[in-house]
Amino acid sequence: MEKVIETVNLTKAYKKVLAVNNLNLRVHEKDVFGFLGPNGAGKTTTIKMMMGITKPTRGGVKILGYDVFKDGVKAKMQIGFVPDQFDFYPELNAVEHLNYYASLFRIPKEERSKRIDELLGMVGLSERKNSKVKTYSHGMRQRLVIAQALINKPKLLVLDEPTVGLDPKGSYETRQLIKKLGKEIPIFISSHLLYEVQEVCNRVGIINNGKLLRVDSIDNLTKLGGEINVQIECINMDEELINAVRGIDGVVDLSADGNILKAKVKNSELIPEIVTVITKEGGRIKSVSEVTLSLEDVFLRLTGEKNEG
After folding, report:
1. Helix, coil or strand: residue 81
2. Residue 223: what pLDDT?
3. Which end of the chain is more exposed for a tag (fewer CB within 10 A), N or C?
4. Residue 187 belongs to what H/E stretch?
5. Which of 93, 104, 148, 83 is nearest to 122 (CA)?
């Protein structure tokens, strides 16, 4: 599978602060990749180095095989970039704005009109294409800047905090657009919003204090450590029943709250055995559910901010 982004020991130091520390990252052609971390973790610095805006202290980065600092023009031509802060010419309408950017990429005039209409339809702005940008809501401007980033048919889309400052409706519309685009083009999304990354991405890299902590699929991350969390609603639960379940080999942790029994087990094959023991001890089971970790749980564990157990 082709690598669209590859960093090797990518490092950026500001005096005594390591903003990015030996980052080794691979993003592939089928990825909608979430680059997740709190504010100040090193996400935007990484993107600036990927875009050739900031030179690394050491290490390097390639975009679709092109070295960003040796073949900068070729590398940048592969990318559609949406920064966390952007602006427009307020007196231009959407068509005029996109036409201007199409001219910068030397897209032939006979191709521009069709391309612009396709993009405005894709981002849901066809009905407002002749309205001046100054009349647009923040959410509409966000969708327009994504259209702008796609004007040259890039092979990679990079989004830095794509829903920052948006209201719930604007955030939802932007996430839906990202999902749609992710079926057609690899996307690299920098965000501190865990629920957003979990909803739209298939793979995630978690960074904190400039250090990459983990890269994996969403599914694997939410099963961190290989353990399964099981929640059982049970009537007639007593101390003997709880101790019987606790004694099952493979039950790592167990807690009870009212009629709810929460167990952490080594694998899902133990669930039928737990059910059998509960029934044998006189318990009446109302429901059994397997509970996966949220991305927030995973992040807090990896950064050491949440105690296990």
Report:
1. strand
2. 67
3. C
4. strand 187-191
5. 148
Locate 205 and state its tokens. 């890299």
pTM: 0.79
d(CA 157, CA 147): 11
Chain segment 143-161, per-residue pLDDT in tens:
999 999 999 999 999 999 9
From the number of C-beta atoms within 10 Å of its C-beta (0-12, 13-18, 19+), residue 289 rates as exposed
Phi, psi of 19 (to 5 degrees): -70, -40
* Dihedral of alpha carbons 97, 151, 8, 213, sign: positive
The tokens for 118 are 């396709």
Residue 217 in tokens: 């699929």
The CA distance from 98 to 278, in Å, is 65
Q: Does residue 101 contact residue 112 with C-beta atoms inside 8 Å? A: no
Q: For tokens 């290490």, what's the residue?
A: 59
Structural domains in the chain, sorted by start: 3-217 (3.40.50.300), 224-291 (3.30.70.100)
pLDDT band, residue 292 (cuts 50/70/90): low
pLDDT per residue as tens digits for the range 99-126: 999 999 999 988 999 999 999 999 999 9
User: CA distances (Å), 180 to each of 19, 94, 172, 184, 305, in order?
Assistant: 33, 21, 12, 8, 34
Type of residue at 99:
N
